[in-house]
Amino acid sequence: MQGAARVLVVDDQPNIVDMLATVLRFHGFLVATAGSAAEAVRRASADRPDVVVLDVMLPDGDGFDVCRALRADGHEVGIVFLTARDAPGDKITGLTYGGDDYITKPFSVDELVARVRAVLRRIRPAAGAPPAGVLRHADVELDEETLQVRRAGRLVELSPTEFKLLRYLMQHPNRVLSRAQILDAVWSYDFGGTSNVVDTYVGYLRRKLDRHGPPLITTRRGFGYALTEPGT
């Protein structure tokens, strides 16, 4: 990666903020902090962090609202939710709102650092990686440098996770990819194989792509999904 990554830690408990900031700085990250939802949005807009470690329960709202606000403003920052909630539905909610990962308390600081680094690998090109290019399939173009997607020449606005999902499908055209493969490639870890987060994001991606042309993503029931040619 080029340069130290910037991380914004958002939590209303000063002891947790101090601990996370200390650990992340020790591992070479540039760290800013915020203690409320409003401050988080302000700091993210001003500092443009690469990753936000975002507590769900905040005194003036919740992390899901912050995530929605950042995505609505076009922020492509990686978002790692940090919360005491451990119900599967909460995890799906966080990821559906545009989050990239979800860690439940109590957690180990090593796990947090590993998760932050995994998100960074997905949103920033690795040092020494070959130059990014343009992927093409049918009338879809995905530019890995500008992070833009066009279909039939029209710009398609995608969230970072939707972009990564489409890129993975375009890297393996006409091949049936299982949910487990997609989870591993797009989210970098498994939810136990029972989460419907893949189905949710495929649905989002389909709706956005299908606005500008015939369907491209095919469901192979019992197997997974494939990016196919129109009409197949």
Automatic annotation (TrEMBL):
Swiss-Prot/TrEMBL GO biological process terms: regulation of DNA-templated transcription
Q: Please name the PROSITE patterns in this protein's record.
A: OMPR_PHOB (PS51755), RESPONSE_REGULATORY (PS50110)
- Please name the SUPFAM superfamilies in this protein's record: C-terminal effector domain of the bipartite response regulators (SSF46894), CheY-like (SSF52172)
Q: Which GO terms describe its molecular function?
A: phosphorelay response regulator activity; transcription cis-regulatory region binding
Q: Where is the Response regulatory domain?
A: 6-120
Keyword Hydrolase assigned to the entry: answer is no
The organism's lineage is: Bacteria, Bacillati, Actinomycetota, Actinomycetes, Micromonosporales
Which Pfam families does UniProt cross-reference here?
Response_reg, Trans_reg_C
Per the record, residues carrying 4-aspartylphosphate are 55
Source organism superkingdom: Bacteria
Q: Which InterPro entries match?
A: CheY-like_superfamily, OmpR/PhoB-type_DNA-bd, Sig_transdc_resp-reg_C-effctor, Sig_transdc_resp-reg_receiver, WalR-like, WH-like_DNA-bd_sf
DNA-binding feature ranges: 132-229
For the OmpR/PhoB-type domain, which residue ranges apply?
132-229
Q: Which UniProt keywords apply?
A: DNA-binding, Phosphoprotein, Transcription, Transcription regulation, Two-component regulatory system
UniProt GO cellular component terms: cytosol; protein-DNA complex
Name of the featured protein: Response regulator transcription factor
